[in-house]
Amino acid sequence: MKKIYAFVIVLLIYSFTNSVSAQSQNAIDFDGLDDQVVSVNASSLIANSSQISLSFWVYPRNPVPGFPDFDGLAGFRDNTVADFYVLQYSSTAVEARFRNSAGINFDILSQGLQLNTWQQFALTYDGSYLRLFRDGLITDSVSASGVISSTATSFYMGNLVFSGTNFLLDGQMDEVALWNRALTPQEILCIYKNKVDATSAGLQLYYDMNTGTAGGNNSGILTIPDISNHINGVLQNFSMNGPSSNFVNGIDNATIITDTICSGQNLFF
Q1: Residue-range domains of the chain with CATH
Q2: Which of 47, 149, 158, 242 is a good FRET partner for 127, with 20 to 30 A between their CA atoms?
Q3: Which residue intervals of the chain are DSSP H helices?
Q4: If you ran DSSP here, which 8-state letter would residue 217 be given?
């Protein structure tokens, strides 16, 4: 009888630990006096859309906002036929508004704002409801309807204008983005835990603020690039040098991932 010998080949499979961590990125600091960023005629990007979304991170500092010193955060506001914005209404609350081309406004007044800390807000409109999210979770919603038909309303960061009065932000902003569709709750949670996906459908404006040198001399920088390649934001009245009214260290909101994989395998994020 022929003997069959089985030869066992031992393959050495080695493993390693792969850790991924985001570097700290830039934000923009507003001095509350005259700083603002303007994207001219940006309402053309969401005009006649029955869905809109706005997302951003903010670090507010004003402890006693009130007329005429409310702090505009981001969005559109002509107070007539084209509003889609969020502003700091009090030390603990924000006001969010959608006003359609018929002049009808739909408002949310939401508690939970925190001073001197980073937090993320998202405002969505899906043709039926206006919804506000904070740190990835929904806080409030109201029924809403209509569209914004204006193609000539500018998008503001760090200011919103009401009857000639500037509501200038004392604080910092990062990762500001606008879509011509309604983000899902799952997408908003992902943005909160990570960052905006520059390839996401319907993205019309995306300012990641990763421009210049944090706290350095950035006087030669006049605009903030729009990662979606539509309209760059124009910097107005910033000193662009030093720890305020300038690019500064921003929110580092990427998740640290640690995993063990074998040779030849891939680590997916």
Answers
A1: 15-262 (2.60.120.200)
A2: 158
A3: 185-193
A4: B
